[in-house]
Amino acid sequence: MSSEVSTKVFDGEEASLLVKDLRESFGSGRTRSYEWRVSQVKALQKMVVDNEQEIMDAIRADLARPPFETVVYEIGILKNSCEVALKELKQWMKPEKVKTPIATFPSSAEIVPEPLGVALIISAWNYPFLLSLDPVIGAIAAGNAVVLKPSEISPASSSLLAKLLGKFMDNSCIRVVEGAVDETTALLQQKWDKIFYTGNGRVGSIVMTAAAKHLTPVVLELGGKSPVIVDSNINLQVAARRIISGKWGTNNGQVCVSPDYIITTNDIAPKLVDTLKTELEKFYGRNPLESKDLARIVSSNHFARLTKLLDNDKVSSKIVYGGEKDESRLRIAPTILLDVPRDSLIMSEEIFGPLLPILTVKKLEESFDVINSGTKPLVAYLFTTNKKFKEQFVMNVSAGALVVNDTVVHFGIHTLPFGGVGESGMGAYHGKFSFDAFSHKKAVLYRSVIGDFSIKYPPYTDTKLRVVKAIVGGRIFNIFGALLGWS
User: Coiled coil located at which positions (predicted)?
Assistant: First the structure.
């Protein structure tokens, strides 16, 4: 029996039946109650807590990532997301009272958050549990039925997600579909009420095109070339350590918020390179390919892609640290490159790996032009103690987020929206922003049948016209004047 299930093809027909079942569950009202939402967030929280070791083992199998990183950046953030949702959900669900104009007197109004319906969440491989389950928390908190499609590039994590959600969650409303391109294509052919995609821009375009056929709203969490500006007045050791933590200490650079390249001045660049070298050796030793604290490259395809970036004629001579590779173990050492040409391949696409180019400028203000000449990044970082330059940075750089004097840490702050702008994505989530991403803000107006004034009904007299003009003007004195016949 299990063999028949495992070989069953998930095609368009199966996807259609799945959506039909979930629509029936959603239509029953099951997901709308506060009690159901809380029970499912609690179940997900228990699932994560009870299976920490299994989760760490699966991620280790997929990425050879240090358990420390998994605990901090996946398990820890997921636990916090559950706690925030459980604490705040009742408040999030409350209708928001709003004022009404005198033209609708007597009346009252409110904005009621309602679930969108059945949502599709397509996740990424690099943080397979966090990037799968964090959106799921928002979707179920908002009262939706959900289909999760984990990434096939992290197969151990995908399999464990399917097993655990099947065991812990309400499967009449929350389902997992494993698979690759064919399964994703079958899912995208269906009509959804929201599609949430995390990944690259190329696939993001495919997702958005599919969604457009049904006028389905989307959240696209993409990426881009996230820059780091380093000023001369900063403590270089602190800056270097925080850059290293955000670059190589988060999945060896395989994360959308990873620093993609550095911009600094000609005179600071050599000092920064020396400081980065010193701190990298402290963290990962003289032979980083042997370090247990660095994740491996996820697949041979990604290894080949990064090798191509590094072996480019314009780039290979610019390596000032690292560059070692071990294809058999899919390992690439932390690599720093100085003054790579801006028209090189490594500067034209998101690196998503352990390579870090450094660009130099004469004046740090030129860095704004460098950043703004490309696509808008998911995040931009700045290290400075100059208050005026911080203000210029905030005013001149458009990105999904800006972080001053650190890297990556904004991702775990639930009171900040996380999302891109332009080519780095659309929509945002985390905390209440996740709830809002999967909710419709429904406008509701309540009017009394008392005070049904004849002014709005024909025949339209000169007096009525004067009163209407006064109402439009919004001044009570004018309204009384119009009623009394004053001009």
Answer: none
